[in-house]
């Protein structure tokens, strides 16, 4: 079973929430059919960037943003287009830079959704840049038909693709999609990562794959509509669902911190990082207070919020500010729908949420730790390269934060979440609340 290690999966509760949103949307379609065609996803309005890309794709299956001209030149675009034509599949390549605050919120899935929507929702396979440097992503409609998502994920892990450049990666993904064995290729490319995948128990077309599913046209609600209201209404309902899909997806996973937040945080200097952390703390507080659902989960989110606030108030530098982000991630995970959400990347929490847990032995130490790491760090370790590590100071010399005496660093003691005991009542928030962070301030 394919588990996309680059993304974590929402559990079934998320799917249920998605279904009820879908049901709500279907009912809305019955009530107000005339509104159907006026409801458009953000970034999808006529003349919008999404429309512009869709228009260009009518002429060529390869769209490259002018800013990426030097990375994927005219000859390469031509070659990709020919390769795509050879497959006779509805593959489109959309290469645009993804940054925070762009029309797609820096999210490749959102970009693909919007473009697919503007293409009229026809069966498509859309390849975009991915969440990581040197990463590509794919979505397809109907979902999973050609294992496109897995194909793109496989390329990320194939060792001969390291440093190969975007065009060659896309070319490889096209070949795998055409062969239809993305899942097998993915298994093969990740076979030597012997750590367990996160929440591998969740299966079925949930998760990121579900975002590519056309909002369940086979759902009981839609089937019932077929019987009751006839094909025209169904068409309207499905139209609304498709137009609303981007928003439905957002409802399903509203709490994960977008990767673009971390990308910006990594580039920020300390003062800016502090500001960003403060903004995210405020946002977590607002969302926790507005959240409805399991009161215990909301309580945990509020605990994380108050712990994040108190660490922020006394943060001495980047390692503490990274701790604020780890607490925010913990709070958001409590509000989210994942079974066993992973913490932020152990090696550098500003890499964002970890993709998987893997065994790792610190230099000069006997015992092996199990740490959660982002995809980029997983790949570095797999290639026996040192992952990029967050540094702290021991005296005046910079050292990996996890080498600092644990009496002086809560983050060395916890690995920003990776090294917690795993007991249900152990969390970063609990440790901050019981004074562990304050003690490190006193010890310094
Ligand atoms: Zn990392």
Structure description:
- The protein is α/β, with parallel strands linked by helices.
- It has 2 domains: 12-252, Roll (Diaminopimelate Epimerase, Chain A, domain 1); 259-443, no CATH class.
- The chain has helices at residues 12-31, 49-57, 74-87, 108-118, 148-157, 166-179, 182-189, 207-211, 220-252, 259-267, 270-290, 295-314, 318-335, 375-382, 410-414, 428-433, 436-443, and strands spanning 62-64, 91-95, 124-129, 136-141, 356-360, 369-373, 391-394, 397-400.
- It has a 4-stranded mixed sheet with strand order 1-2-3-4, with helices on both faces.
- Helix 3 links the parallel strand 1 and strand 2.
- The model is unreliable at 6-43 and 194-254 (pLDDT under 50).
- Bound molecules: zinc ion (ZN).
- The site of zinc ion has 9 residues, from helix 14.
